[in-house]
Amino acid sequence: MPAILHRTATRPVPLKTRPKHRIDREPKLDVGLIRKVLVRNSGSAWLPFEVRRRKTQRALRLQIQRYLQNTSRDDRSILQNDGRYRSLRRRHLNFKRSSTESMSLNIQEGRLDSVLGRLRAFASLDYLGYPKQLKNITHELRLQHDQQCPSWISMLFPNGDSTKMAENWMSFEPDLRAKIWPYLLIYLLEYQPDWALQFIRMLIEQPKIVYTPKLDMIADALTHISSIYTRRLRRVDANSQARDAEVASQLVPICYYFMQCGPAFRMFSQSFFYNMTRLADIEDLKLLLELLEGSPIFLLSATHLQFANTFAKAGEQDFALRCLKAVRSKTNDFKRYLKIVNREPFRWSCALLLRLSSRNGQNYHDMPALVAQIVEMGVQLDTLLYNVIMKNAMEAGDYSTAFQVFNTLSDHGLTPTEYTFATLLYGCTTSNEPAKYNDYAEHCLQQAKTLRYQWLAADYLYYHYICSYRSIDEWQDHDFQNLLGIYSEIFDTGPLELFFGPRIRRPATSEEENDTTSTFEPLPPVPLALYIMLQARIQVDLRISYHRVWELYLRFEKLVREKANPHINEMAMRPMIWNAFLLVCCRNQQFSHASHIMEEMRARGRQPNRYSWTMMMQAFFRAGQTAAGERIYGWMMTHGIEVTNFTHGAILIEYARNERYEDIGKIMDHADSEQLDPDVLGALGKVRDRWALLKEMQESEKRKKQEREADNQKMVDSRVARWRSLLEKMDLEMLKGREFKSLLPPAKQQTNEERSAPSSDAPVAQ
């Protein structure tokens, strides 16, 4: 093991000659001198690097000055007790360095005994927590650890085993423990953050609290670990994600205990609580919120909004509202509060809560009360919030309310956006009689032409496609020509001419429209518009013969391979058009053609999705090749492809046709019995032995119930493992009414006096 350990530097090579300025005085850049130096050193990328660094440094210095003015305290008195201020100072330190530096952490030098030394050490660790924000714009500070740290770590974690860490730690002399723990913690944070979290938990569980003079170090260490795991959980590897999520879930109990047992209310920075919304279990996050609400911790409005967004996504509407309303209680100036709640971030949080509370028509009847609470908070409803209200109404089938809201926008001085028109127009296509909204559709067309909204124009084309689809039994050529006329009135026909030849003409218009039409430049087609036209052409050609559809596909494949048109290439990047041709092949049992399409999809960089594989599976079932269809289903289950009720329904129909009751029960273990399609229910209703089917369905429901109970018990056991040892050490009076009070061991009997008696070793809260 080398005597000095440090990370490999990734900073640019420093210039041989540098301007002789004191960086902390912030002189103006001598651009002429720097250019001469650049020419001499051939470092063309150095000038923008230095300009960005110094500009950010000046901005951070002004923030520090304003922060000190607002708190009316000096740097020394606030540095150790204010996590938000320490975070700002660390960032300023990183941008202040004019070259790569190193910091010795030799224990004999005692660098970590001072708060400034700890500040520099954590500033270096920020390069691991925020690499993108720092590595390309600042000079790194390398840590040189004490040469005894590796041997001490190997004694604490022999062969990487952490089960006896506390026992091994107590084998050290008390004076040595008090002296070396900060240096071991920094070492672990840099090289083994998993062990660092366990080390912190062991420290705060010790009867003798040796970290009391360095509470800021524990808080900053937990913040650093939270940033590390927030980055790790973005990885694609599912196994690593699950392992990291399990370790990261221990952060909330440790933080909770640390904040209850010491003067740590202002020790944490805002980034810690922001990260916890991404790492914590939703039930643990509720407990953390309750602790924050009853403490003097100051949370920025952005942090409150992050909590609100997390609870809204988890379906916890009441907790999300509590977070939004907490912004008012933390703001003394009412005028400033009104500015905060009417800014875009707060509005987006309200929109998210409003949207998710009534998604897919669920709980739509609760939406008026929720809107009233949002208005009571001082939020003025804008186009964004009205769009969400109309979206929820359309999904719930309340078309009249949606249009009433739309008609009142002008009364409130609001202008509809492209999303407003598209929301209502798409909602019209879901009604039983879409044709009765034709006047509104024509209004959308005029808006799309005037404001050149490509996607709104595509929605208008889709509206007419749905109207035609609902009104005819089979697609005829004149139906396609009518749709083609609508397309050519709006979009550029160049891409379609590559399919159908240069005979596409724009439809004739009335004399009143001639002036507008002559000046209208066709819009470039979006992928949806091209897909609609090809889908309509497939329907027409399929009525004549399958070979015409296959010829259309070969033409499409050739155009994609030759990259003949960028709009066609963009459409080909989505699996939707490939699946349209694949469906025709599967329904006609053309398996060689279907396999060719799926291979071509892979060659074009588009992997077949769950609908592609389900169509292949259905085709094999209909051809009597049940074993082949089952192999596809098994392959989907084992390769991580999302299997929905659409896939389950296809295999259930096949098993019902073959009277395979036991296999039906096995599939029902994975399917949602309340969301089965009518075709599936019809197939199940035609079986001969209904008692056998009913028995298997009941057995399946029992198995699913047992699995849910096992999952719930696993979650409870996981929470017990995270919280139990810490809760046993806490004052039970603090936990009165808390949900996790039931996690305490019932076997340990104590009197109320014993439970409420504080430990003599615990620090006094400040």
Automatic annotation (TrEMBL):
PPR repeats: 382-416, 574-608, 609-643
Domain of life: Eukaryota
Segments of this protein annotated with the region Disordered: 738-766
Record's keyword annotation contains Phosphoprotein: no
UniProt key word Repressor: no
Keywords, in A-Z order: Repeat
Quaternary state and interactors: Binds to mitochondrial small subunit 15S rRNA.
Family affiliation: Belongs to the CCM1 family.
Role this protein plays: Regulates mitochondrial small subunit maturation by controlling 15S rRNA 5'-end processing. Localizes to the 5' precursor of the 15S rRNA in a position that is subsequently occupied by mS47 in the mature yeast mtSSU. Uses structure and sequence-specific RNA recognition, binding to a single-stranded region of the precursor and specifically recognizing bases -6 to -1. The exchange of Ccm1 for mS47 is coupled to the irreversible removal of precursor rRNA that is accompanied by conformational changes of the mitoribosomal proteins uS5m and mS26.
NCBIfam families: PPR
Protein name, UniProt field: Pentacotripeptide-repeat region of PRORP domain-containing protein
Originating organism: Periconia macrospinosa
